[in-house]
Description:
Blueprint: E1 6-12, H1 16-32, E2 36-42, H2 48-55, E3 60-64, H3 69-78, E4 85-90, E5 93-94, H4 97-109, E6 113-121, E7 132-133, H5 138-149, E8 164-165, E9 168-169, E10 173-177, H6 178-184, H7 196-206, E11 210-221, H8 230-248, H9 250-277
Parallel strand pairs: 1-2, 1-4, 2-3, 6-11
Antiparallel strand pairs: 4-10, 5-11, 6-10, 7-9, 8-11
Helix pairs in contact: 1-2, 5-9, 6-7, 8-9
Amino acid sequence: MLSPPITVIVLTYNTRNLVLQCVRKFYPRAFSLGWQIIVVDNGSTDDTASAVTETFPAVEFIRSDRNLGFAGGNNLGLRQAKGRTIILMNSDVLAEAEVLQASADALWARPDTGVLSPRLLTPDGKPQPFAFGDDPTLGYLLLRGLKTLLGLGPMHRWDVEHPVEVGWVSGACMLVRREAVEQAGLLDERFFLYFEDNDWCLRMREVGWRVVYDPRFAVVHLGGASLPERSLANRLYYQSLIHFYEKHYGPMATGALRLFLGMYRARALLDAARRRSLGT
């Protein structure tokens, strides 16, 4: 049997209605083109399983008994993926099959590119912040933190109009070559949430592949559907960042990062306290 040209892996966690909306957007055309469609239910408790399997009979449904995080959940799908191009997609992404096909064609038109992301748009049609970026080195983070504290704006322009080579792209909607996955390996499940896409893109680049953000093709990312509450999300963010440093930059850089984060959070707390005292 011939392998499908594209595998789409949709990861969901307690987003029953969103995942139905997500798959419905591309399902008819994808089915006619012979794509493999995998929905991974990451331990949901909202009856996602019956809703998906009854609505989309051609979908391959994988259910985990517990929430494995972004990396662990997507790895369940990656182990079953047969496509030449593999698309990771969050359940809160709305993408036409034609856009996904054009993005896959753009990926294969660049023989040195292993990872490609289409333009991510917010629901109001604006470019999504942090859709891509550079490696979070100490210099990069220091400059980013300084610009934030001084109100000088973000490190990148999100409204780019032409394809750009970047350090990483968001895992919300990411296209990868099968060969790149085979060479770099699966997602690192030690990252429960945050920086798993950074890590994967870095590992792809280390084995010779380029990472590209291509704004010629656009999908809508509703955003935040499966995120935990803010304090837990912040804790997971910093834990993952520290693990990224331990893995890629070594103990000295990790120690410097811990010091920098302590100073940054202390300054943020002082600013918040000052705003409260001024009643703003």
